[in-house]
Design goal:
The chain is of the alpha+beta class.
Length: 693
């Protein structure tokens, strides 16, 4: 078997060694290194002739050109291979050339092989592969992690600049079988004396690769490419989607070579890999904690994780973290004091699995996953902050539970009686009628209102330290009823429709006699998606803009106006009924909305409560008016740019792909009969010429 001292006898090498002058130059350089002038004088030839032969020997890798330290002289010396050529007893030829007769027999035999032909050999490179230049190459590390530096010792067979690549197994096989044009993944080279430091120019997934090195003179190591095992840096981020202000913790689990390592984890935007890292956290024992406060400050988008190792080598991790803006929605935003209430809460886009805590006044009242409902226990009149995650997202108004009743005296005067639910008569409550103060309720909770003209009137009740309660009264023909509380809503066509959601602009018009606070809520496919509280003056208007989060696809969208809960007006407020008009029914709220290609007309309630969760223990429900029904098509999000693409190079061939090439050439290289025949003839010619000299 050939070893590293063998000199390959391909036609090019035989042609180089067929010249006596070149052999004489090698013998002179065996003694010591010499300049061009010294060689010309020793051989008695012109410098131009010697230079021409030196160039041939240098190209063949037998001689190298060297400058002295001060660059005053140019010397030539033997390479390791050149020394083997002129050292007796150490150079061995695979073809014995003891005489011209034997050489002729070899040449005729090889020519016969070519003429007869030979079937492809099953597997492994053929004789030509064994005769290829071996190339001295020693890889120090046979197991690497993405980002590691590979140390390679390159032998003197390589001349001048070298170029290094990582090849996939199929590419290495094709290269050994003589397929040209295969390069693979380039490696950056940094020379450290005789050792090369190689680093991949891009991400490399786990797998086995082969190191291929070549120089500019056609020397390479295709016959002895060493395998290396590459392991990609693996990472796991939980959760993979970060809802700002919702999640309490995220951990990046990074494992390299199956054990914990130290370093720094960096987060860089996928859309702009050149941007500065938004976050840098220490990695200890293969794990890193990404702080919630830092991620809350990150702009929505997709981020790539990088590992910065202690040697300042950065490697991409096969993991990404997506930061999203949550869509917090709470409804209703007005409740009655002293009664338990079901709150609908959405913490993120519908369908999200983000689970977070909901707090009221600092105390946890439940957990929601995406969209759910929680119970708000009895509260005193005033307001309570609702926190979803780590921030205050809404303030729910708690209205006093004052239950009015009107009684008509014999003289037609109306008496107002107020009772606080569960506490009896409500005394000391300031009463205003149409903006005019009438006084405060007495100890028994009553106050004389007097006579009321036909029409609508605004009644306002102000208990000390509590929010004002307003309601409308309708007087017709001596009968006093609850005034209808319709709200007309106009919904503009959705705007900013894109991946992730859309925007709804609305305009609300009140036809009620008293001011009121309403909740405008948007529902996507029946789930609460956005909400906002709006204060409406009597007969006034208000505007609201809702940003609605929704996944890509076709959705049914409903805009609802939720009115504060209101106890029914009690007592008998009917005076003389002669000629009285029939009681009016509750009003309706209508509206219309349109989106591109779809429109809807809002329905309404006819004086009855909507089908929302009960607002009190006695079955009283919140009034709800359907404002508009829309159909919205939300486009699917575009695929995020991949920061970790994984290296999967396609072999490069001049005319056809790998399968066609190997099919024509056979699964292994054919016995190159024609080439061997030429080689035998060249040996015969060379030996004959030497004998004649």
């Amino acid at each position: 078997m050939p070893d590293e001292t063998d000199v390959p006898l391909d036609p090019a090498m035989i042609k180089v060694l067929a010249s006596d002058t070149r052999l004489d130059i090698l013998k002179q350089l065996k003694q010591r290194r010499m300049t061009l002038t010294e060689l010309a004088n020793a051989l008695g030839l012109k410098k131009a002739t010697i230079l021409e032969h030196l160039e041939r020997l240098t190209t063949a890798g037998l001689v190298r050109r060297m400058d002295d330290g001060e660059r005053l002289w140019v010397y030539y010396e033997l390479t390791r291979r050149g020394g083997y050529v002129v050292t007796p007893g150490r150079t061995r030829f695979y073809l014995l050339v003891g005489g011209s007769a034997l050489a002729a027999v070899v040449a005729l035999a090889l020519a016969l092989v070519f003429l007869v032909g030979q079937a492809p050999s099953p597997g492994g490179p053929g004789p030509l592969g064994q005769l290829d230049q071996k190339g001295g190459l020693n890889v120090a590390e046979r197991s690497l992690v993405t980002g590691d530096v590979m140390h390679v010792l390159v032998g003197p067979e390589f001349v001048g600049a070298t170029h290094s690549y990582l090849l996939l197994p199929q590419e290495a096989d094709a290269l050994r079988n003589g397929v040209t044009g295969i390069l693979g993944l380039p490696l950056e080279e940094h020379a450290q004396g005789p050792v090369l430091e190689l680093r991949p120019t891009g991400p490399v997934p786990s797998g086995t690769y082969y190191v291929y090195v070549r120089d500019d003179y056609g020397h390479d190591n295709r016959a002895s490419m060493p395998p290396v095992s590459v392991q990609a840096a693996e990472a796991q981020v939980l959760p993979a989607i970060w809802w700002r202000g919702l999640d309490s913790d995220a951990r990046a689990q990074v494992q390299l070579r199956g054990s914990g390592v130290n370093g720094t984890v960096l987060l860089v935007p996928v859309a702009d890999p050149a941007a500065d890292a938004i976050l840098a956290v220490p990695l200890r024992g293969g794990a890193a904690t990404l702080g919630a406060s830092a991620l809350d400050d990150a702009a929505p988008g997709t981020y790539q994780l990088l590992l910065l190792r202690p040697d300042n080598v950065s490697a991409p991790l096969a993991a990404q973290l997506e930061v999203r803006e949550p869509g917090i929605a709470i409804a209703p935003l007005s409740v009655l004091a002293g009664q338990a209430t079901q709150l609908s809460v959405t913490a993120a886009a519908p369908g999200s699995d983000a689970q977070v805590s909901v707090r009221a006044g600092g105390s946890v009242i439940g957990q929601v996953r995406g969209a759910d409902s929680v119970q708000l226990g009895p509260r005193d009149a005033g307001s309570v902050d609702i926190e979803v995650g780590r921030a205050v997202h809404a303030s729910v108004r708690v209205l006093p539970d004052l239950r009015p009743s009107l009684d008509a005296r014999s003289d037609g005067q109306l008496v107002l009686a107020l009772n606080a639910s569960g506490r009896g008569p409500a005394s000391g409550v300031q009463v205003l009628l149409d903006g005019q103060a009438l006084g405060a309720t007495e100890a028994n909770g009553t106050l004389l209102l007097g006579s009321l003209a036909n029409g609508t009137h605004a009644l306002a009740l102000r208990a000390p330290g509590q929010p004002e309660v307003a309601r409308g009264l309708l007087v017709r023909g001596g009968t006093v009823l609850d005034a209808p509380r319709p709200v007309d809503v106009v919904v503009d066509p959705p705007t900013d429709v894109g991946p992730g959601g859309f925007t709804l602009a609305t305009e609300l018009h009140s036809r009620a006699a008293a001011p009121m606070r309403v909740t405008l809520a948007a529902y996507v496919d029946g789930a609460l998606a956005a909400s906002q509280a709006i204060d409406l003056a009597p007969g006034g208007a208000g505007n609201a803009t809702l940003r609605v989060l929704a996944e890509g696809g076709h959705h049914q969208v409903e805009a609802r106006v939720l009115l504060p809960p209101q106890p029914a007006l009690g007592g008998s407020a009917s005076a003389s009924a002669a000629g009285a008009e029939p009681p009016a029914t509750g009003g309706t709220a209508g509206g219309s909305g349109a989106s591109s290609g779809a429109s809807g007309t809002g329905g309404g309630s006819s004086g009855g409560p909507a089908s929302l969760p009960a607002g009190s223990a006695d079955g009283m429900a919140y009034d709800a008016y359907d404002a508009a029904q829309l159909q919205v098509d939300v486009p699917l999000p575009a695929m995020a740019a991949e920061a970790f693409r994984g290296y999967s190079p396609e072999p490069v061939f001049p005319n056809r792909d790998l399968q066609d090439e190997l099919a024509q050439r056979g699964t292994a290289a054919k016995t190159p009969g024609f080439e061997l025949a030429l080689l035998g003839l060249a040996v015969l010619v060379a030996v004959t010429a030497r004998r004649r000299r």
